[in-house]
Amino acid sequence: MEVRRAAIEGDRIRLELGPAGSGKLELELLPLQASGIEPCGRWFGYRLPADATPEQADLGGEVARWVDGHYPDDPWVKCNPAGGTQASGGSGLRIPTGCVSWFVAAILALLLGLGVRNDRACAAGRWIATWLDRTAWYWLGALLLGMAVARLAHLDIALDADYTTQRLFFGSLDWGDILAHRYEDQRHPQLFYLILHAFLWIGHEPWVVRLPAAIFSLTTAVALFVLARRYLGEARALGCVLVLSLSTAFLFHSRDVSDVTLFLTLAILAWDAFLRCAERLTLGRAVYLALAEIGMLYSYYMGVLVLAAQVGALAWAALRGPAHPRRGLWATMGLVMLACVPFWIDFGNLIRADLATRQVAAAYPQHLWGERQAGEFGVDVLRQLFPAGLGMVPAALAAALGLWRWLRAFRRQPAGRLMVCLLVMAALVIGLGVSLVRMKPYYVIYLLPLVALWIACGVLGFPAGSGPVPGQGARWPAAARGVLGLACLAGLVSTYQAEAWVNYQRDSHAAYAKLGEYVRAHGGADLVVADPDSMHTILLYYLFPGPLEAYRTCRRSAALPVRCTHQGHELVNLTSMPRLKAGWEAASLERFRGLRRPLWFVHSSRFSNPALEAELASTCELQATFDHLRLLRCPVSTQGRPPGTTAGDSAGPEGLAR
Questions:
Q1: d(CA 92, CA 359)
Q2: Considering only CA atoms, which of 572, 565, 496 is closest in space to residue 530?
Q3: For an engineered disulfide with 575, which of 42, 123, 149, 532 has Cβ 3.0 to 4.6 Å away?
Q4: 3-state class of 508 per DSSP?
């Protein structure tokens, strides 16, 4: 496609496009104030004719080049080939495909050695398996290096979600405030924020606040290796780490401002310590267990599920035999609970607050998240644990087979009882918890390393004639195990390649960052207004100088849900999401009308208040759009204006069309 002719007609531009020697397509670029169009340049947008062919529709590149050539100083937004928008700056950094190929080669080598280890006719397979056992720690180091590359490559992209900046600001509080739990987000205990606080000494750039999750993803892999090698041997433990490293859910949490990977590390260590103490309790093992349990609880509230499973496993064992060998373990668990009294108080406050918020979410499901159906929630959990697409079937089969083998081998031992209790706790959360409080699928993410363990057991079995379960090696044909293993491998790798980068393309994260650039380029912002209140942290981060200091000035009140003032800049939110009640739309509108002018208004298409949107359309001018965000300038006061009058003809009600 090429631009044949361009005609400027007032505030409109008419382009004639078409391939050489064929028919033409007339395209009209309109000012964004006309809205209802796909943006292409900060001031212009286009709408395709209804009869446009697919070939004619593929014109985004030509239009973008034309806009760049005629408006070189206006590069805020460019067209993409699909006719939508993408922020300038190119696509996100992509990991070289050779890195994924290296992972594939390593997995194939493991399958070759482990899949035929018990086949006496294949000396080469036995030699490879023995060699892998002897060099497992070196292989683990190589895998950790590859995992580090896959995580560090995308840490510097812009922050694009309010929870990321919420956690950043919580971590920036003083040590005493963090320890005393003086922050609004009651869903996350103190340990992660204490660690993040130390990292913020380096700076508050995106790569810094994402770095703790990336580091703890590597410690999670090491912890899983340590746990699995006691039951599966070194080489098969390495296979568990490989399966975990190819999980897209694990990769996502490893590159997020998240405490999930810290929790997984400590949960695995707590399992390992508990099983060691159940076998033989010593003072050193008791201290190991206490430290792991306390750290796990103070890293993530869902550590309660792991603790409950351990207590259930102890009670189960007491029903099957004398309790005196486990008195020391009971005492250790009791001391852990006493040491975590502040945690239990905070956890109780969380439950009470979330029960109330659940009622608000039920009344306003379009505004507050909160899954309510156990079946849908269970499906979302499975999507977190297994690869998407066709790979889910072989992975689920391998995991089911591995779980059956594990329970069969350890049915009378602590390892089997603990596994059953962990599954029961997850089932209770999925079946009952989702109807009581708000739940996210990753709340039971502790199952993810267990799934990797089950898959390794299903495909590779236990070492024959060695380890804690002699004679429990794989007894079905090596060819069948190889087919299942290769099917799992294909599913894991294909999902990894297809989904690993979806959420980490630079263009898809740039909305708030580009909005901040635009405002700074136009003189900064004395007063910024936005809805809902959850947006205030990310707008502080990208719009205000000294965002960490600005956050400390934020106050909540009945008059204004959020108000932050710092160095002459002010940020106001009109709506409090957890406190929505009848009449909230009118209350937000009245708050808006009472504000001084001029102001910038940041409107998100993900939040709807029709009354306020109509007011914005009549009093404000649309300046720019950034993905789901619309930036408006409101220069005129609404006080004393007769109903129905407007501030001008440049922005009509369609200016906020979604």
A1: 40
A2: 572
A3: 532
A4: helix
DSSP-derived letter for residue 255 is: T
Q: Which is nearest to 204 in space by CA: 177, 165, 150?
A: 165
- Cα separation, 372 vs 360, in Å, equals 13
> What letter does residue 91 receive in the DSSP assignment?
S
Run of H or E residues at 294: helix 283-297
Contact 457, 402 (CB under 8 A): yes
**Of residues 626, 534, 569, the one with CA closest to residue 161:** 534
Rounded to a whole number, what is the distance in angstroms from the first to the last CA of the chain?
Answer: 29
Helix ranges restricted to H, 76-161: 97-115, 123-134, 136-152
Residue 199 pLDDT more than 90? yes
Spatial neighbors of 576 by CB under 8 A, at least 6 apart, are 532, 533, 556, 561, 562
Worst-scoring range by mean pLDDT, 110-124, 284-298, 456-470, 585-599? 110-124
Interstrand relation of 599-604 and 629-634 (parallel, antiparallel or unpaired): antiparallel
Whole-number Å distance between alpha carbons of 644 and 615:
10
Alpha carbon of 249 to those of 116, 268, 422, 610, 640: distances in Å? 31, 17, 20, 36, 54
DSSP string for residues in 3-71 = EEEEEEETTEEEEEEE-TTS--EEEEEEEGGG-SSEE-SSSEEE---TT--HHHH--HHHHHHHHHHH-
Which residues are CB-contacts of 476 (< 8 A; sequence separation ≥ 6)? none
Give ∠ CA 278-279-280 in degrees, rounded to 5.
Answer: 95
CB neighbours of 397 closer than 8 A, spacing ≥ 6? Answer: 458, 484
The torsion defined by the Cα of 368, 370, 373 and 377, in degrees rounded to 10, comes to 130
pLDDT in tens, 28-78: 555 444 434 444 444 455 555 555 555 555 555 555 555 555 554 443 333
The strand pairing partners of 566, in sequence order, are 569
Instruction: Kindly indicate the confidence band of residue 266, based on its pLDDT and cuts at 50, 70 and 90.
Output: very high
Closest CA to 267 of 101, 481, 418, 105: 418
User: Cα–Cα distance between 275 and 524 in angstroms, integer?
Assistant: 58
- Please check the confidence at residue 605 and state whether its pLDDT lies above 90: no
Cβ–Cβ < 8 Å for 92, 501:
yes
Instruction: Return the HEC string of 459-485.
Output: HHCCCCCCCCCCCCCCCCCHHHHHHHH
Residue with tokens 């009308």: 593
pLDDT in tens, 536-561: 899 999 998 889 999 999 988 878 88
* Distance in angstroms (rounded) separating the CA atoms of residues 41 and 546: 30
Asked whether the CA dihedral 630, 636, 638, 641 is positive or negative, the reply is negative
Q: Report the run of H or E that residue 621 belongs to, with start and end.
A: strand 621-626
Whole-angstrom Cα distance, residue 658 to residue 364? 20
- CA neighbor of 425 nearest in space, from 267, 315, 309, 333: 309
